[in-house]
Amino acid sequence: MDFDDSPDEAAYRARVRALLEEHAGELLHLAPGQEGVDARRHEPEMRRTQRVLADAGLVGVTWPREYGGQGGTLVQQAIVAQELARARVPGLINHIGIGMCGPTVIAHGSQDQRDRYLARLLRADDVWCQLFSEPASGSDLAALRTTAVRDGEDWVVNGQKVWTTLAHVADYGILLTRTDPDRPKHAGLTMFVVDMHAPGVTVRPLRQMGGQSDFNEVFFDDVRIPDGERLGEPGEGWRVALTTLMNERVAIGGAGGTIGLPVEAFVEHARERLPALDGDRQVLARQAVGRAVVASLAARYTGYRRLTVLSQGGIPGPEASAGKLAGTEAARLVADAGVRLLGDDAVYASTSDGDDRWQRTQSWLPGIAIAGGTDQVLRNILGERVLGLPPEPRSDKTDPFSGGRR
Amino acid sequence: MNFDLDTDQRDIAAGARDFFRGSASPAAARAGLEGDRLEPGRKALADIGFLGITVPEAAGGAGRSVLDLAVVAEQGGAVLAAPSLVTAARAAVLLADAPELAAQLADGSTAFAVLDGPVDGSAPSIDAADATLFLGLDGGDLVVGEGEVVPGRPLDATRGLASVRLTSRRVLAPDAQELWARARQVAAVVLAAEDLGGADRAVELGIAYAQEREAFGRRIGSYQAVKHMLVDAWAGVDQLRSLVWWAAWAADCAPAELPLASSAAKAYAAGAFERAAGTLIQVHGGIGFTWEHDAHLYWRRAKVDRLLLGDEAEHLDTVARLAVAGALG
Q1: At what angle do helices B66-78 and B177-212 cross, to 10 degrees?
Q2: Most distant pair of Cα atoms in chain B: their distance
Q3: Minimal Cβ distance to A391: which of B5, B222, B246
Q4: ipTM of the complex in this document
Q5: Contact at 8 Å (CB) between B238 and A322?
Q6: CB distance A301–B246 less than 8 Å?
Q7: In the beta sheet, which residues pair with residue A205?
Q8: Is there a contact between A298 and B264 if contact means CB atoms under 8 Å apart?
Q9: At residue A258, what are phi and psi to the nearest 5 degrees?
Q10: Are the beta carbons of A376 and A325 closer than 8 angstroms?
Q11: Please, which residues 64-123 of chain A have a Cβ atom closer than 8 Å to chain B?
Q12: CB < 8 Å to B318, chain A
């Protein structure tokens, strides 16, 4: 056991750090106290930042070299993430593309699709989104109703997606559709790459409870998708989607990455605000701070344990869901303690000097506990696939989707 | 970065599992509540070398790491073994400059206990009930001496809890507060490791039962209410394992991180073990709170351990203070 970098890792870290310094002038940086940037308002700078990082070899670290990646390890990828955070470079605009869509194209796409899309995705020439959830099928994803009907060389798509992160700036998306309603619901699905600028695609941002718009509704009205944009075989869409979903759970907190605000920023906040609280409030706040720090460190180190296993040749399995669950809980404790530290200001949407990080994060986290699988769905996955507990009895795996039982 | 046990430590864990499963059991912990002898007992632990894992080789120990000891302690915790390796770990730190006493610790010829609180009337202290020589902090000095033992009625007999009044004392080291604090931190890590083993075993037993038992025409593990309870208990164990390994590693390799890491592990252990033991009883239903079932033995251990060597509130407060003071780096 050794938490320090191995000589190889130390050398890699030094190289990453040097590259980030060399290109500092071309990268977007977070101001002091700022914890993230709005993809809509800063789209050009975010695209430029990703392009510079990609050209420096710092994007798609674990992707195979033949698709423009670095053929690197997960530990190297974690080092890049740590150094980007240290340099206060905000998250990449194409994080959905890199974490989920790209790996799905690599695993299930044709050579032609890989050639056309992957290099541009890495450089943020194209931004990607993932079109899965629908108003009537969130956690029960396979119950989706958006249809794709074959028409000559094309497929014609009709329906609606929702909760689509980045759709408002995206150029492409991976789209899960129903192509055969007479088969059981998991069997009649097909995946496509869809051009988000195609006629018939309408994107409408959704305003969330915190006031911001990260998600969108997307409407498809007779949108034509050429058959060459299919990902995998017709009817095999569920298998393709599982690749995306597993990558999603690894991407969201599965490998020790932070969800929400970093614990270091939280501790700094506590240092400033704790002394101003009086009596019992301070005692209670310290308990909350301690609990949040402990949970954050536990989630981080559990991620490091997974990372170690993966770097020894293991493959990401269903236990990645535990990382998302623990990371979400830690983030919640951090945000709630962060708000508690504000004293009387905690009841407002921001402090008198305009700091709204803690309240904003607090109102954003209930969404994270739903995105990529609700806490309850993740518990089902862990219970059945890691702990080996029996599944709930269900008939939707065998009955035709069109049979009315949805 | 390499955050995993090495092959050597995996072998140590496997050997310790075999030893503890063969020499201690919840049944013995239950018998202890009626006054019977606890297993495996000090002599067996000394004979296999577990009391001297962190005692230097020159004093007859194995001179190994706290992490190695934690790996062994986890296996002892899984079967509610007694006496606790917490005592050996803590005494080994305190006796670093007293090789003769350290040798008696390692070979089991003297039964040591470390006293918390004032030595003229100590707080309930682990393994004090049948100890013959006591280590304590007296006005800042580390002292050793004999004492009068006042046992209470045990909630968990395996902890050997008793209060002690020293009847003799000699100073082993003056101004020993720092050494004392470090010994207590190492002890907290090893206690968290024993709790990890107990919690892990409680979850394992709960899962096994939920896979077999049927109610309302289905195996109960298929109900989300039961499944989610077990998953939460399991996830707590998974997180605790990371904190225990980190804290044990810090004790060996990053002393500056030990105060924060040990308090983090101890605070988290309190809640994780309670949840695991409570879940074990709940999943079993009526049978789970009978005297004959093992569940209450894990529950007892959890209820007692959460208060020993500082409760959750004390350690959360310590984590907050240390973090704010810059201990996260």
Answers
A1: 40
A2: 68
A3: B222
A4: 0.97
A5: yes
A6: yes
A7: A216
A8: yes
A9: -85, 135
A10: no
A11: 75
A12: 290
Q: How confident is the model at residue A239 (pLDDT cuts 50, 70, 90)?
A: very high
- Largest Cα–Cα distance in chain A? 74
B173-190 pLDDT, tens digit per residue, is 999 999 999 999 999 999
Token pair for residue A339? 């708000």
The tokens describing A386, both together, are: 């890691």
Per-residue pLDDT reduced to its tens digit, A78-93:
899 989 999 999 999 9
pLDDT at B275: 98
Q: Give the Cα separation of B284 and B221 in Å (integer).
A: 11
Peptide bond into B40 cis (omega under 30): yes
Task: Name the pTM for this structure.
Answer: 0.95
A393 interaction partners in chain B (CB closer than 8 Å): 218, 222
- HSE, side-chain direction, 13 A CA sphere, residue B133: 16
Among the partner-chain residues B232, B245, B268, the one whose CB lies closest to the CB of A1 is: B245
Tokens 């998708």 belong to residue: A225
Measured between alpha carbons, how far is residue B89 from residues B85, B183, B188 in Å? Answer: 6, 8, 10
Helix (H) or strand (E) holding A194: strand A189-195
Residue A212 is encoded by which pair of tokens? 């911001």
Task: Tell me, letter by letter, the H, E, C secondary structure of chain B.
Answer: CECCCCHHHHHHHHHHHHHHHHHCCHHHHHHHHCCCCCCEHHHHHHHCCHHHCCCCHHHCCCCCCHHHHHHHHHHHHHCCCECCHHHHHHHHHHCCCCHHHHHHHHHCCCCEEECCCCCCCCCCECCCCCCCEEEEEECCEEEEECEEEEECCCCCHHHCCEEEEECCCEEEECCCHHHHHHHHHHHHHHHHHHHHHHHHHHHHHHHHHHHHCEECCEEHHHCHHHHHHHHHHHHHHHHHHHHHHHHHHHHHHCHHHHHHHHHHHHHHHHHHHHHHHHHHHHHHHHHHHCCCCCHHHHHHHHHHHCCCCCCHHHHHHHHHHHHHHHHCC
Chain A: give the shortest CA distance to residue B154, in Å. Answer: 30
